[in-house]
Amino acid sequence: MTFGERILAARNAAGMTQEELAHRLGYRSRSSIAKIERGERDVPRPLIGELAQALGTDPAYLMGWKDTDEGSPAPAPNNDSQLAEKLGLMPVKVKRFPMLGEIACGKPIFADEDKESVVMADMDIQADFCLRAKGDSMINARIHDGDLVFIREMPIVENGEIAAVVIGDEATLKRLYYDRPNNVLQLVAENPRYAPLVFRGEELDHIRVLGKAVYFMSSL
Q1: What is the DSSP string of 134-171?
Q2: What's the domain range around 164?
Q3: Whole-prediction pTM
Q4: Residue 52: what pLDDT?
Q5: Which residues are known to be catalytic?
């Protein structure tokens, strides 16, 4: 079975609805669970442990590393530290970050919020939310298409810092430079293929800084 099918099987064996599982994990609706079971959503390693605990099984079963009779999930082990050692896992303290849609690394795109999604990441990350990068304009800053970028909310950033910026109804991720005496704002890509975006005077009335990029997470 796939990972999603094992989640479904474990949930059915526990007599639990998608709504009940979503509530235990802190989601506001069943849609996130439905996406996981259909294989339409990536599941970070910390969330696998939470799913196993909520379903009364263990991560090894959900990952397909352990089979049980008739496909039913195995009971959770009594010693979590022994299981972690066996799987080569280190305990990580995590917290939830809201996912606010995608942000363009290239041309600006519509800043569509997906308030039902959350990302589990290291609790030491000092950020308020995260966005998924789209495009290649920030590759020289090691931010690639599909990376998660964690944003600390603030109305302005220092010159040269990477910022999430909304232009009208569109959002982009760039290095920000503000010439205060001349009231000129430049948003500069980390890819020479892209020219800077320059805004002056009244054009700045349609621009809002969401915050500073403080951390990013890439997929293997």
Answers
A1: EESTTGGGT--TT-EEEEEE-S---TT-EEEEEETTEE
A2: 95-217
A3: 0.56
A4: 85
A5: 137, 174
